[in-house]
């Protein structure tokens, strides 16, 4: 036992030398030398400056260490992370919502998208011009003679071949965008060589179905999207 006590009190290098030399010693002696080395190594890690000049200064973080329990610290950590996540999600939602609301059409633009016309206010044989999306719209309440005239045309001879049926959902109501297809003037109604519309800018003549018959315009007057929700109402757009 005296030998064992002397081994554990030796310096590290001496203990290791003894451990190497004790390969031929008794098992009890070898285990005592190994325990001494382990103890010395452990002390070295715990307090390095005690074994030579330190090359770095390790600050003491003990002042900042929480004195609360681990569970308590976890609760605070989870609460902070959860709160920040909820606030970030709310901010992102508000940003996206504001962006989408800003991009959508305003009430006045939506109101301009469609125009409703009371058809019983337009007598037979008369034209009405309304404004839709900044363009003039021609609405003509055609007579039976005008409908017959529109159908009595050899379609294949037209510059822009279209039957009257293709241009009017109801034969008595002709609805067109009132913009000349040449350079964009607004034609005059009930004028021209074909009893329809005449564009004075360069002399284009349109018939009673709005089809180009004479002059430089290349196409018939355009037909907008429209519908008749009931017998007395026309909705354009
Ligand atoms: S713009 Fe109508 S004929 Fe030229």
From TrEMBL:
Pfam families: Rieske, UCR_TM
Enzyme class: translocase
Location in or out of the cell: Mitochondrion inner membrane
Domain Rieske: residue ranges: 140-235
Chief localization: mitochondrion
InterPro entries: bc1_Rieske_TM_sf, Rieske_2Fe-2S, Rieske_2Fe-2S_sf, Rieske_Fe-S_prot, Rieske_Fe-S_prot_C, Rieske_TM, Ubiquinol_cyt_c_Rdtase_Fe-S-su
Known catalytic reactions: a quinol + 2 Fe(III)-[cytochrome c](out) = a quinone + 2 Fe(II)-[cytochrome c](out) + 2 H(+)(out)
Recorded superkingdom: Eukaryota
Note describing how the cofactor binds: Binds 1 [2Fe-2S] cluster per subunit.
Keywords per UniProt: 2Fe-2S, Disulfide bond, Electron transport, Iron, Iron-sulfur, Membrane, Metal-binding, Mitochondrion, Mitochondrion inner membrane, Respiratory chain, Transit peptide, Translocase, Transmembrane, Transmembrane helix, Transport
PROSITE patterns to which the protein is assigned, alphabetical: RIESKE (PS51296)
The protein's required cofactors: [2Fe-2S] cluster
Any one GO molecular function term: quinol-cytochrome-c reductase activity
Keyword Nucleotide-binding: no
EC identifiers of the protein: 7.1.1.8
Cellular component GO terms held in the UniProt record: mitochondrial inner membrane
Membrane topology of this protein: Single-pass membrane protein
Further information: The Rieske protein is a high potential 2Fe-2S protein.
PANTHER family to which the protein is assigned, alphabetical: CYTOCHROME B-C1 COMPLEX SUBUNIT RIESKE, MITOCHONDRIAL
Similarity annotation: Belongs to the Rieske iron-sulfur protein family.
Protein name: Cytochrome b-c1 complex subunit Rieske, mitochondrial
